[in-house]
């Protein structure tokens, strides 16, 4: 019996776990940053994973040579989102990462409740394009969250709505801020990616093809 079978719910992140939208966020931020004269690479992007839109923009503009008004920031965030929406417009179920559907189905077969905790305001659209909306018992609406990751609010809200105590949940995340959010919520954390980067996770797997319940 898998040690994960003691849990009652699993709460997944979306971008970079279930589908490779993390790549699209990277491309959209890189174009915006470079247009503002800010150097942008994979290492910097690692700090943005799991961080909400305005928070990510603030981190990028902190390296710019001038300051920006709130109206300019809003315009830049909107421009980034429009670019991102162009990138996700062509997504289909073929964009599910290896093992993603199997992980959702294995969690269901194990009797777990299944939640989604993404701070992306595009999460509902991405789930629809991937054809997996119906596989979740509850999807947090990012627009209702006051504090983004690494604050635990989003994972705690998912647990509450699923009717499961945080200690009976585990979370699945590809971002440093996301793993920190899971741990701050008092949950077991599965990191997806590089164990050196996701050092705070309880276990780290390379991708969902290695999901322990599959
Ligand atoms: C996820 C991604 C972040 C992204 C955030 C907000 O957490 O990991 O890279 O900035 O969602 O996404 P949004 O679609 O609302 O701009
Ligand atoms: Mg992510």
Automatic annotation (TrEMBL):
<feature type="binding site">
    <location>
        <position position="173"/>
    </location>
    <ligand>
        <name>Mg(2+)</name>
    </ligand>
</feature>
<feature type="binding site">
    <location>
        <position position="15"/>
    </location>
    <ligand>
        <name>Mg(2+)</name>
    </ligand>
</feature>
<comment type="similarity">
    <text>Belongs to the HAD-like hydrolase superfamily. CbbY/CbbZ/Gph/YieH family.</text>
</comment>
<keyword id="KW-0597">Phosphoprotein</keyword>
<keyword id="KW-0119">Carbohydrate metabolism</keyword>
<dbReference type="Pfam" id="PF00702">
    <property type="entry name" value="Hydrolase"/>
</dbReference>
<feature type="binding site">
    <location>
        <begin position="13"/>
        <end position="15"/>
    </location>
    <ligand>
        <name>substrate</name>
    </ligand>
</feature>
<feature type="site" description="Important for catalytic activity and assists the phosphoryl transfer reaction to Asp8 by balancing charge and orienting the reacting groups">
    <location>
        <position position="118"/>
    </location>
</feature>
<keyword id="KW-0479">Metal-binding</keyword>
<feature type="binding site">
    <location>
        <position position="149"/>
    </location>
    <ligand>
        <name>substrate</name>
    </ligand>
</feature>
<dbReference type="GO" id="GO:0000287">
    <property type="term" value="F:magnesium ion binding"/>
</dbReference>
<feature type="active site" description="Nucleophile">
    <location>
        <position position="13"/>
    </location>
</feature>
<feature type="binding site">
    <location>
        <position position="174"/>
    </location>
    <ligand>
        <name>Mg(2+)</name>
    </ligand>
</feature>
<dbReference type="InterPro" id="IPR023214">
    <property type="entry name" value="HAD_sf"/>
</dbReference>
<feature type="binding site">
    <location>
        <begin position="48"/>
        <end position="53"/>
    </location>
    <ligand>
        <name>substrate</name>
    </ligand>
</feature>
<dbReference type="InterPro" id="IPR010972">
    <property type="entry name" value="Beta-PGM"/>
</dbReference>
<dbReference type="InterPro" id="IPR010976">
    <property type="entry name" value="B-phosphoglucomutase_hydrolase"/>
</dbReference>
<feature type="active site" description="Proton donor/acceptor">
    <location>
        <position position="15"/>
    </location>
</feature>
<keyword id="KW-0413">Isomerase</keyword>
<feature type="binding site">
    <location>
        <position position="29"/>
    </location>
    <ligand>
        <name>substrate</name>
    </ligand>
</feature>
<dbReference type="GO" id="GO:0005975">
    <property type="term" value="P:carbohydrate metabolic process"/>
</dbReference>
<keyword id="KW-0460">Magnesium</keyword>
<protein>
    <recommendedName>
        <fullName>Beta-phosphoglucomutase</fullName>
        <ecNumber>5.4.2.6</ecNumber>
    </recommendedName>
</protein>
<dbReference type="InterPro" id="IPR051600">
    <property type="entry name" value="Beta-PGM-like"/>
</dbReference>
<dbReference type="GO" id="GO:0008801">
    <property type="term" value="F:beta-phosphoglucomutase activity"/>
</dbReference>
<feature type="site" description="Important for catalytic activity and assists the phosphoryl transfer reaction to Asp8 by balancing charge and orienting the reacting groups">
    <location>
        <position position="149"/>
    </location>
</feature>
<dbReference type="InterPro" id="IPR036412">
    <property type="entry name" value="HAD-like_sf"/>
</dbReference>
<dbReference type="InterPro" id="IPR006439">
    <property type="entry name" value="HAD-SF_hydro_IA"/>
</dbReference>
<feature type="binding site">
    <location>
        <begin position="118"/>
        <end position="122"/>
    </location>
    <ligand>
        <name>substrate</name>
    </ligand>
</feature>
<dbReference type="InterPro" id="IPR023198">
    <property type="entry name" value="PGP-like_dom2"/>
</dbReference>
<feature type="binding site">
    <location>
        <position position="80"/>
    </location>
    <ligand>
        <name>substrate</name>
    </ligand>
</feature>
<feature type="binding site">
    <location>
        <position position="13"/>
    </location>
    <ligand>
        <name>Mg(2+)</name>
    </ligand>
</feature>
<feature type="binding site">
    <location>
        <position position="56"/>
    </location>
    <ligand>
        <name>substrate</name>
    </ligand>
</feature>
């Amino acid at each position: 019996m898998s040690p994960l079978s003691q849990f009652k719910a699993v709460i997944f992140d979306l971008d970079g776990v279930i589908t490779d939208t993390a790549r699209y966020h990277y491309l959209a931020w890189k174009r915006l940053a470079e247009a503002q004269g800010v150097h942008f690479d994979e290492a910097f992007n690692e700090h943005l994973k799991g961080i909400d839109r305005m928070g990510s923009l603030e981190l990028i503009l902190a390296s710019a040579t001038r300051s920006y008004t709130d109206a300019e920031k809003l315009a830049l965030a909107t421009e980034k989102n429009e670019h991102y929406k162009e990138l996700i417009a062509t997504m289909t179920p073929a964009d599910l990462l290896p093992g993603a559907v199997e992980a959702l189905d294995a969690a269901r077969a194990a009797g777990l409740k299944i939640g989604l905790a993404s701070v992306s305001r595009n999460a509902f659209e991405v789930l629809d394009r991937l054809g997996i909306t119906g596989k979740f018992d509850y999807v947090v609406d990012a627009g209702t969250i006051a504090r983004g990751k690494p604050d635990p609010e989003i994972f705690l809200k998912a647990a509450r709505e699923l009717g499961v105590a945080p200690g009976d949940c585990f979370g699945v995340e590809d971002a440093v801020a996301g793993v920190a959010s899971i741990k701050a919520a008092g949950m077991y954390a599965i990191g997806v990616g590089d164990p050196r980067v996701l050092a705070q996770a309880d276990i780290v797997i390379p991708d969902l093809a290695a999901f322990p319940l599959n």
